[in-house]
Amino acid sequence: MSHFAKRLVSKGIKTTLVTTVFISNPSFPTHAPPPPPTSKPYPTASTKAALTRPLAPKFTFKRFSRWALDVAKQFGIPPAVFFTQSCAVNNVYYHVSKGILQLPLLPEVNVSLPELPLLQVSELPSFISDYEPQSAWFDVTVKQFENVDGADWVVFNIFYELEEVVDWMSSFWNVMTIGPTIPSMYLDKRLDDDKDYGMNLFNPETDACRSWLNGKPNGSVVYVSFGSLALPEANQMQELALALKGSDCNFLWVVRETTEMAKLPTHFIEETKEKGLVVTWYNQLEVLSHDLICCFLTHCGLNSVLEALSLGVLMLEMPFWTDQITNAKLVEDVYGALGLRVGEIRMI
Fold first, then answer.
1. CATH class of the domain at 1-27+35-179
2. What contacts 314, CB < 8 A, 6 or more positions away?
């Protein structure tokens, strides 16, 4: 969302990013003192009047916050719904939300949906294949389509040629494809100084990574990262560690310190320091743009898939949950990319 806003600004369009109080609070502790308490937590009447005055036509974007569309309509702002998952994945969710695809599905059933390859139940997003009607994740994912028909635009973070399902969706929505929204330095360099996303979920170990990568032969490094949310089991981490240790390749492995580092085999980091580097976070685009990367072992989150596609990197697919499983199928059978599934990994 923020990177799309940056592109709008480059076209001379004034943009404002609005978020909830909860989301705007810092995610990580800082050494700064907390802000002073206020006795006026709600807008005054004059502030409310200013906020509700008639506005010139503008955009508003939302993802799972379906209430934002109704707010935009209330204040006369033409709303655009911004989806950050693929059209194919949202095609599945749409058919579930409309009751066309009835749940639960039997494991042996094949699912046929417009403009998609035939899908096994195990290739559907995990909230659908592992259906739990009381799941909050299922609820928020499917209900995002309740009022989407009222949007003036439906925006996807993909490019048109990637998914034929765009044409089907365009028959009932005003669809715009604006992706991939990655820094233009790695695409067409249309924006000056557009080199990164402007934020990191965790502190990147930039100096250590750059120092280690320097001097490695081209095409000799396997890059391994499962994003910020996937939670591999301890036995999966240990088997992967043994595979990397026994391979003929160098490797750079992103292992989150808070949840994953303890799952590595004892002494693994020390025993593989000549051929491997384990870090807690790094700028993924910087890694993937290196000629020394031979392949990317990925969880198949859409951002990672789009980055690898944009930079022409071979993907080894190890999806865990949510849309990752369907994305892996798309990489293999729809996107025409270099991708290979390494195993069926499921997380409930």
1. alpha beta
2. 294, 295, 296, 308, 338, 339, 340
